[in-house]
Automatic annotation (TrEMBL):
It comes from the Bacteria. InterPro entries: GH, Glyco_hydro_25, Glyco_hydro_fam25_subgr. Gene3D superfamilies: Glycosidases. This is Lysozyme. Pfam families: Glyco_hydro_25 (PF01183). Belongs to the glycosyl hydrolase 25 family. The keyword Ribonucleoprotein does not apply. Residues 1-27 form the signal peptide. Keywords: Glycosidase, Hydrolase, Signal.
Amino acid sequence: MRFTRPLTAAISIVAALGLATSTVAEAATRSGPTPNARAHGVDQRGEAYMGWSDTAGAAPASAPSPGLAAVVNGIDVSSHQGDVDWATYWGQGVRFAYTKATEGDYYVSPNFTQQYNGSYDVGMIRGAYHFATPNDSSGATQADYFISHGGGWSRDGKTLPGVLDIEYNPYGATCYGLSQSAMVSWIKAFTDRYRSRTGRDAIIYSTTDWWTTCTGNSAAFGGTNPLWIAKYAGSAGTLPNGWGYYTFWQYTSTPVDKDYFNGDLSRLTALANG
């Protein structure tokens, strides 16, 4: 399957974002979204988002109790939300936001600037995330691409470290055609490069099911990289190997992806400051 839009149109759109047309031409030859991804609104490459598959569990009817002494409410967004009314979310008690910046080595979200800067402007602590496609290029290459297109970090008390969104493949084989050991190596290449360039350890977003299936439930990152667990249920459930607690929990996608931070606002600010 290929892009539903003509290649020339795709080139025009991405060229406007400052990307090389050769990269667009290469991306257009890659497999398009699977039927399952299309059913979840991923109509073409680049449109995948955190928890796109809705396979982390049944979304709770209301916000579940995190069972923690203190939490901070947040959301995560992508191009699917378009320009966001951040003042409304601030009024609802949302105090942090993560925005999709990039995917693979071929896509930059057209809504990134409004979402990333808009959340900051209303007072939220914000961050950026990268949707990984490990079969397209190396972990180091994708970390560089992410950092170069909004995924960097600064110690201003309002900018969180970047997130590696590593989950179900919307374009083909669940584990992107990589063995478990190769997947661990790919993730390490990404996180090592991110650390070397920003001085921060990237947060890893995933589900326990995907992590177990595609990394062999590796414990290699629990001591360095904060965990963002996706589980649409009344509790975060069993965590991947190596992590004794989660830093973020995405607990529903209704009506927008909603998240808890494990701690109070002072701890979230501390995470932002490094």
